[in-house]
Design a protein that fits this description.
heterodimer, A: about 200 residues, mainly alpha, 2 domains, 9 helices, about 75% helix, extended, B: about 425 residues, alpha+beta, 19-stranded mixed beta sheet, three-stranded mixed beta sheet, 10 helices, 24 strands, about 30% strand
Amino acid sequence: MAKEYTEPEIIDGLKKNDRRVCQYLFDTYYTQIVYFTYRIVEDREEAEDIVIRTFYSFWNIRDRFNSILNIKAFLYITARNNSFNFLKYRQRQRENIRDLTVQPFSEETSETERRIIQSDFMKYVYQELQNLPDKCRQIAVMTWFDGLNASEIAEQLNISVSTVTTQRARAIKYLKEILSDDNLMVLSIILTTLEYL
Amino acid sequence: MNDELYGLSGGSFEMGSIIRKYTRQEINAEEQALLDSWKAKSEENRMLFEELVHGDSLPVELANYHQMEVRKEAAGEMMMEMTFPAEGNIRSMPWNWKRMAAAAAIVLFVITGALLLFINKDQKAKITTQNVSKRSTKDKAPGRDGATLTLASGEQIVLDSTANGFVIEQGETAIVKKDGMLSYSPKKGGEEGKVLYNTLSTPRGRQFQLLLPDGSKLWLNAASSVKYPTVFAGKERVIEINGEAYFEVPPLTRKGGKERVPFIVKTSDMEVEVLGTEFNVKAYKDETNVSATLLEGKVEVKTGSSQALLTPGKQAIVGQTESTNKITVIENADTEEAIAWKNGLIAANKATIKEALMQISRWYDVDLQFKNEIKEEEIRIRVPRTASLSGVLKIFELSSRLRFEMQGNKLIVWQQ
């Protein structure tokens, strides 16, 4: 488990140009800001690029920040501005084409706030999914993806069949708790989210 | 206003966590008060709350989020290399577009490379779990964006392989493709000349979106086609469809007048007439019924012999086999389910098991064969359309008495 930094440690790390703090902030906020950016530019690779550049410019002016909230707000606002710049740039490239779907490339603060809320919300739900213990997750994948039955899983993992069934029941119970009551909805989530693990 | 937050309110950084606590029923009185006042602030806030708490899109959005998370490590390496360049490297470079593009290319390269590594690792791991090769030949990938455009001249353009950007001109209209959507824009100052007809069609395993010159937006499901004029000139906006499509139609007034221009969707068995609204039309030749489901506004449904007026939440069903073409109106239709496909889901309930199987057949491009008669049973299924076929079938098997077997491109179905 990577070290958790407290707010004073982070602010201190910024002053000292501590690369571990930089890495920590990136690991903590990257995905939710990519998700936020993606919802503006609707292009995942472009969103990733924008967020990498956002972190780069954040670190270049790191000594201006005095709180985590201040940092988060900067990251979101900069990613948003970079997104609008990108949309403008792409529109200029296409100007010779008449395109009816021209967007205004700006938005009300309240709209940005809603995007932030949604991105934060997704992060919390996703984190809860990740909290599924390793073995549990492994068994869930083998059951629902590889279509293996309990004895096949037991053989491969070199554990008893009853352990497999207990772990599987735990996985289902856990996921049911963190998501809706609808068991089927939960299963469908496992299938898509664990696809790449 | 707080300068440190660039004009954003501090509360917006807590609301995501508060809503999550609400869904887990861990919210305290103070947080509930904050949530209530935030919800009361605007209709948009309230809608976002509803979407996060009760919306259908969570599984799809989570899968999306996961794919971004998977690339975090590679992106982090790239960011760290830029921010802390190794000894001897140039410290910082001025940003201009050319450099930026080059950097973007490197980022993509690094990320793709990392992703390939991921995938390889994943596959190696899978090979050790026997029967995988057997399974992979049996499994099928989900459908994706793609369609064929047939121009007035009869010329066909396959949009799966066409790059984003300008496609072609048709009379006074420019056609542009962007990702999974085709847009028609009338040329400024162009004369309303001859009306030309285009057809957009999807095979099984493909879907596409269409933006018509009047601003109407249309989602075309798999194995469907739509025929439309490249410019709407007359008293009516008439298009024809086969298969399934979801429509968002803005109201239109005649040039220089107050007269509204109705939008009419024709299928072989019915006609749906609207002024401006959101609705779904399903008219597959291989299903027993055709249907129209209304989400907003008002529509009129007509067949040769009868007609019915729909208000939001209602669904009109017309039997294709009966010669009378009688319209049955369902008062409290499951509209969410009727448009689940458009929101990236395969949905099924007691009454729609068979229709869901037909959806699967169209989206995964497999032929269905029924071993016994499929009877209604109590189910409620929601699966993202991005899952592989085996994943979807697994869910159906776990939650119903349906069982499946793949033979070549044939999906054999029976009920236990």
